[in-house]
Amino acid sequence: MGIDHVVTQVAKLIGDASFENFNYEDVETAVQQRRVEMRYETCTPLETRASGGAITYLTYTAPNGWGWWDEAATFTNSNYTALTPATSDWNAGRWTFSSEPTRPVRITGFTYDVYAAAADLLENRAAYVSEDISAFSVAHGSFTYANKRTGPMQMAQRYRAMQRPSVATVYRTDINP
Fold first, then answer.
1. Which residue of 26, 38, 67, 139 could cross-link 22, Cys pair, CB 3.0 to 4.6 Å?
2. DSSP code at position 165
3. How far apart are CA 166 and CA 43, in angstroms?
4. CA–CA separation, 37 vs 23, rounded Å?
């Protein structure tokens, strides 16, 4: 159980699956900073039609369609009785039960924003390499390397567009509440 599958995905997104630029702990820290706690959130039931038209609800998806769940997440039914899925896709946020549970099915656990974590790490990488020498001269010419900062920043910008929306509460201090 855990978030190894999430850390591995973020490492792949930043092109560092072998953890050469960032070690495992650095990637895990970035992932943990982008976690969202969900408590008793209602999962979406998906109907399964049997021959003859009978409908059952065995498969459920995560609230908001969010994936990348901690494998320690738990499920409960309408009576808050613990449920155990027969199959789990923690990456996609999709679970199937062997028998139809009493709805609603609720999930409690952590989900992670892999794109935001990847963008954070790519921006860090761009900051690290911005100090590298990218041009130099020798006796018979000068040499210029492509800007090492551009690639990571372009990917970070792409992942920022893909990250989950966030909400901030802003309070005005110049008026009475």
1. 26
2. P
3. 20
4. 25
